[in-house]
Amino acid sequence: MACVGVFVAYLPVTTVSVSLPAVQRALNASTAQLSWVSDAFVLPMAALILTAGVFGDVHGRKKVYQAGLALSGLGALVALSAHSVQVLWIGQALAGIGSAALLPTTLALISHAVPDPRERAAFIGLWATALSAALALGPVLAGLVLEHASWRWIYLPTVPASLLAMAFAARLLTDSRAPGGRRLDWPGQITAALAITALVYGIIEGGAGSFSDALVVTALTVAAVSAAAFVLAERRSDAPMLDLTLFRSPAFTATTLIAMISFLGMIGFFFALSLYFGLVQRLSTLDAAWRLLIVAAVPLLLGAPVGRLTHRVSPRLLIPGGLLAVTAALLTLTGIDATTSYAALSWRLALLGLGMALVITPMTATAVGAVPFRQAGMAAAGNNAFRQVGAALGPAVLGALLSTRAVGALPGHLTDAGLAAPVVRRVTAVAQDGGIGAVGAVDLGADTPRMLAALSASFLDGLHLCLLVAAALTLLAAAVGAVLLRAPRATAAGQDTGPGRTTGPRSADDGTPAPARV
């Protein structure tokens, strides 16, 4: 049921992202409106993950799990019936809230069912496989739908999937709560949600416009003040939403930073790569989806084996090793151009997928296993929250870099293509007003092929910059892992006593003592 839940939570991520051009044409949405279609999902998911984890610990993980499925299905229904971009935002936001409820709850369900950290790692590997399956199937599903029907039908599979999962969960799951009388931490929840929302909003709007804009400056200021207020509230709270003492564990600190930094780089890269397939190689949604499939297919195949490997190989080797593989893949991708074949691209994408497989499962298992068992749900929620903040910032940060570099390079490439100065000024004005993607719709008659070649060259300049920045971010994440991750200490009995662990028998999630293990 945890695997089903994370599949439902992540299915909209790639399904919607590859469908944005069709949404724009159908709803006549502006570029700014279109950017908020994805952000309306990601922002509440990032802002409410910590809160959802607390609700699960206090009121029961099964209840929050089912509420997440219900909100995901409801959001899909609203989006399915949307005839304006504003209604689509509402549907996406509801689905994002549902995903925020599902992500920490699914990991907490695994921690409750499998207390032993060695056994748990294999099940977290299956959880990561389900996550990868959603990311892999999303673009293919969207491509098949867009080939034969309206874009709205991309939301249909989520509805029966949510309803069936709710029905099975009602029969199969037992409820669980965190021991120790944990209660809701309203000051922490409000300040955390406000800080994350303001930060993501400020970065997105600043990247689309200017970081000197008054609204952007205000949002970033609110984010900084709210973050400081959150730290103060958590330090004073008797029942904090995110116990800051968790960061005394180097392993938890490392995995949290790695989650945010690496996902900022990788998700931002996927955003740029999908544009490359559309704007430069002129592929259909389905053709682009088949090419992106390999990136998610490799983690899908390797998720369970890597999960079993995590208790045999130190995360200090696995996680930085995977990040170095991702870095190498990103650097090799700087050699692609408009005519790069899929055969030349596929091995680079497979290397990228291999690196991700070596990072996602060990990172999640290490974050959950680095803290006391009673705080496993909190650790999962915190790790997911920082991961989603990185995922939300990635397209905004790298998208802004790509757009700025591409638009800046466009006049030179247009001039090199032999276009007249008035035409160069006209096309450049379109790019400055509507973004680099708007240039593809300009009709210059006989000069259109030369304009499109200049557009491709300009986009590749921006893409190469994004690849270098993403590679630098993943390299930084690898350095963090190499410095902070440590192999767990073992007692004479061979039990794991890393940060937050004791040598005695673990207690079950309901507070009853667990049977001693021989």
Describe this structure in words.
It is a single chain. The chain has 518 residues and is mainly α. The chain has two domains: 2-184 and 239-409 and 458-484, Up-down Bundle (Growth Hormone, Chain: A), CATH 1.20.1250.20; 185-238. 75% of the residues lie in helices and 0% in strands. It has 16 helices and no strands. Helix 10 packs parallel to helix 14.
Secondary structure class reads: mainly alpha
By CATH, the architecture of the largest domain is named: Up-down Bundle
Give me the number of helical elements: 16
Distance between the termini: 30 Å
Q: pLDDT under 50 segments (min length 5)?
A: 487-518
Approximately what portion of the residues adopt beta-strand conformation?
A: under 5%
The overall number of domains is: 2
Q: What Rg, in angstroms, do the CA atoms define?
A: 23 Å
Number of distinct beta strands: 0
The largest β sheet comes out as:
none
Order of helices and strands: HHHHHHHHHHHHHHHH
Q: CATH superfamily of the largest domain, please?
A: MFS general substrate transporter like domains
- Percent helix, as a range, is over 70%
General form: globular
CATH class of the largest domain: Mainly Alpha
Average pLDDT for all residues: 81
- CATH fold-level label of the largest domain: Growth Hormone, Chain: A
Features:
single chain; 518 residues; mainly alpha; Growth Hormone, Chain: A; 16 helices; 0% strand; MFS
